[in-house]
Amino acid sequence: MSEPKAEVATTAASPAPEGTPAPITKSAEKKLAKKKENEARLALKAAKAAKAAATAPAGGEKKAKKEKGKEEEAPFVNNTPPGEKKDLSQPMASGYNPIAVESAWYDWWDAQGFFSPQLTEDGQIKPEGLFVIPSPPPNVTGSLHIGHALTVAIQDCLVRWNRMLGKTTLFVPGFDHAGISTQSVVEKRLLKTGVTRYDLGREAFVEKVWEWKNDYQGRITNQLRRLGGSYDWNRVAFTMDERLSKAVIETFCRLHEEGIIYRANRLVNWCVKLNTTLSNLEVEQKQLEGRTLLNVPGYDPKEKFEFGVITSFAYPIEGSDEKIIVATTRPETMLGDTAIAVHPQDPRYKHLHGKFAKHPFVDRRIPIITDDIVVDMSFGTGAVKITPAHDPNDYEVGVRHKLEFINILNDDGTFNENAGEKFKGMKRFHARVAVVQALKDLGLYVETKDNPMQIPICSKSGDIIEPILKPQWWVNCKPLAEEALKRTRAGELYISPKPSETEWYRWLENIQDWCISRQLWWGHRCPAYFVNIEGVDQDRNDGKHWVVGRTLEQATERAEKIAGGRKFTLEQDEDVLDTWFSSGLWPWSIMGWPENTPDFQMFYPTSLLETGWDILFFWVARMVLLGVKLTDKMPFSEVLCHAMIRDAHGRKMSKSLGNVIDPIDVIQGLDLEALHAKLYEGNLDEREIQKAKAGQKKDFPKGIPQCGTDALRFALCAYSGGGRDINLEILRVEGYRKFCNKIFNATKFAMLKLDEKFVPEPTAKPTGNESLVEKWILHKLNLAADEINKQLADRNFMNATGAAYNFWLYELCDVYIEAMKPMTDESASETTKRSSQQTLYTCLDHGLRLLHPFMPYVTEELWQRLPRRPNDPTPSIMVAKYPTFDKVFEFAQAEHDFDLVFSAIKASRALAASYNIQQNLHVYIRAQNDDEAELFKSQVPTFLALTKNCKSVEVVRDLSGVPAGCGSEVLTPSIFVHVLVRGQVDLDSEITKCEKKLALAQMSLSKIVKTESQEDYESTVPANVRLANEEKRKTLEADIQLLEHSIEMFKQMKE
Fold it and tell me: Per the record, where are the segments of Low complexity compositional bias (predicted)?
């Protein structure tokens, strides 16, 4: 249900027992066996591919060359019994294999009860707080796609984060019966065997749909578990479970009793293809700029019909030779015309007021009426044909003028007897052509012109929607919306991002009544009954002849009052309820409402509803309307709308384009041939399959690479920065697989530094023995923790993942792990060694915890390999404390000092690269300040460790200590970096380069001097700007001095 759907609800014919899986059919067993066989084959292929992923410890991502004669690793086989903890006593694998890393953990987490809400000893919410997410239930229509994976990644990230913050958390899983979608897909499958639902009958057909539901609920469950969602599976729900069905019936009856639900014969959106009504939200408007030929579902694919034109024709005036010209974009509807409207002030037609036109094809007099609302005198001829039973605007005219409402359309899209003998039985668009031809034959046709317009399209079937009159059940939404608006404005509901909040107000302020009847067999059948009194002529359209009942006994009791002692029978409405009606009750029905259950008391209202912006009104708004009405509470305090995932080209995901991605395929990888084969599992025809194959070949020429769950989740979160669209590139996901590999290998390497004697300190608090780089990395860890927590609180997953990525890659791996090498070699003191190990342990421990909400599997695997602190019984990283800002890790001066040292290191690397010096690097740091000189002298070992092929680093105080033949860089006005380049450069070229740099520096300096020389500079320029200019001037002056020295030095070397 995380995708928009034009779905319908029906009553469960025989709901599956609650809390237990439905029985598996033989066909489902076969599918399951085949599925397991495929998974084993894919796992074998994945393992073979993974062995090439091994990279050098803590280093870059270079692939190691295959050694001759080296034995290949055996394909990974998960030997851990389900629910038991993985055995990690063996050494770590040679390289990161996501299939191996992700195995066994989920079943263990589930078996340990980590997914259930953690309460205090007396059964109360923990003092840290409560965080509850009612997971948007996916449709049982088919398997999950990558959009669902985004939902899981974001929601589970927030749940795991809040759980680690110590809160009581609940993440409720569930499934939506998805009326229209599921019935449609099952019908298509049956049609392939030549069977229709009518051949089976309602009860047998519904049983077939239950079989489908049980099969796909199992598949989706497997996908959700593979994605790492920490759902409480003890509370899994299905919208047609007995418990949730009870909530649907209670809601319908209660709202009917209060007059909110009513019955009316009104215009509805009719989909001929699906043979059901749709709400306005389920209808898309297709823009046409002019004449367009289109295929229509249900017709020969070679047959196209004309849209985007307006046809004018004439009606003869009764009793005269005069004619009145009208125009229409739907000529066939003239067979249902019951009036012609003109403006009361239009002088052209005043003589026709009260007269009649004669219908050319049916025996019908058509009154000429006056209406100043629907008629614009300046548009067209100023005369408007009125078809009250087939046009929304005309319907209102018909109500105002008490016109006859003539329905000319059967449910199957053919014309009925009201259209006349000539057209009866014709399909609607064949009738369009025939009507125009018949008008031409009678000389009544005038012209057809291009007409830019929108046509209504069914969002599910692609069929052209027909407005028709139907007696249906409706919800009066205005009073519900008024209360929802009032409470939202009062701050009871926060909606983000901002554009979604704006749309929220606009839609609720202009809300229309909601038609909840659907002509389906799959869903919740309306608990409404027609009281058929013997011998009495009754209008079924009139709600007064209907009763509702929570049970048949209650309905019978109410019917007896209406019958007044007369004999009667009860006939339950054949229609079912809109799917969104039942899913609109989701946050409280899953907690046991209408019963006042312990779950309802403790976990409702929920904390956050996260979903796509595209179903903000389909689903979210309806939950708020119904939640406030039924429970007197907002069902959640926050709504977070995520982006719509598109392919790398920005196109919407579509099966016919071949760009719909199964998240499991990204996790374990799939070759192109297997991708092609999956297309045949759906309902695409051969032409669509070939088109999809071409799309797959273009986008995935080598198939989809194996990325793993952690990389997929991290990538989806990294894409989520508040925009409305995500253009997903699988290569980026694969890039985060390399990041997982980096974490794996860095931890593996770091573990070597934690020797067998190592025991972590009882707490992470610094001991006071930390070196400068240790203080720096602890400070950076603290900053990362602070930033990630802030960004998660702000729901900016892009920035949160960015902070975690930067800490691990650029600070821990690239700097500290390299810098600590000399601190752990044989020459280092025991104190230095132990301190560096403790710091490394803290960084790994806290760093993995910071990553866990995004990457649950690899972090658990690696964290479990770390030793525990004394007296720390924490069994899993997912229940470990999440790092937050801690004052004891705040080393601002150390950060400043080491950043200065690291800037010098980067400057020396850059100088060496610019002179193409790859070995025997000799660096001179010229520090004019005593403190800075001492700082650099103390960091020479770190400098050497972090500068590849550096043979020596010397700290000098003035230029006399720098040998001739050095390339130089100004770091600050008092710190200079020099790299010996003598004998390895072209002197003339270097002189030219220095002269160009000198000219640019002199130009920049003159601009700053000019700015500082202005008369009112001190009084008009802010102090911070003046300070920055002064710093720039000093740096430029030092740069100029150094460049002049370098030019002179290189010239002397030439002599």
Answer: 43-59
